[in-house]
Amino acid sequence: MNTEDALLHGRESRGGDSARWATFMIGEDGVVTGWSPDAQRLLGHAGREVIGRAATELFVPGADPPFWTPPRDQDDWVGEVTARHASGRLLHLAAQGFRFLPDGSTQREWLVTAALPGNFLLLGEEQAMLDWLYSRSPVAMTVYDTDMRCVRQNEAMARLTGVSEVDRLGKRLPEILSGPDAVVWEQRMRRVLETGEPAYSGEMRGRMPVDPEHDMVLSAAASPLQGRGGRMLGLCATVMDITEQVRSRERLNLLNEASKHIGSTLDVTRTAEELAEMAVPQLADWAHVDLLETLLQGEEPGPFTGGVALRRVANESVNPGAPEALLQPGDVDVYPAQSAPVRCMATGRSVLQLVEDPATQEWLADDPVRTVGFAQSGFQAIMGVPIRARGTTLGVTLFLKRSKVPFSDDDRLLAEELVARAAVCLDNARRFMREHTAALTLQQTLLPQRLPTQTAVDVDSRYLPAGGRSGVGGDWFDVIPLSGRRVALVVGDVVGHGIHAAATMGRLRTAVRTLADVDLPPDELLTHLDDLVIRLATEDELTETQATDLGATCTYAIYDPVSQICSIARAGQPPPAVVHPDGAVEILQLPAGPPLGFGHLPFESAEVILPEGSLLALYTNGLLDYRERGIDEGLDSLRRAFEKPASSLSARCENVLDALLPTRPPADDVALLIARMRSLGSDHVAVLDVPAQPESVGYARSWVTDQLAAWGLEHAAYITELVASELVTNAIRHAQGPIQLRLLRDSTLICEVSDSSNTAPHMRRARLSDEGGRGLLLVAQLTQRWGTRHSREGKTIWCEQLLVEE
Question: Are the C-beta atoms of 720 and 751 separated by less than 8 Å?
Answer without folding.
Answer: yes
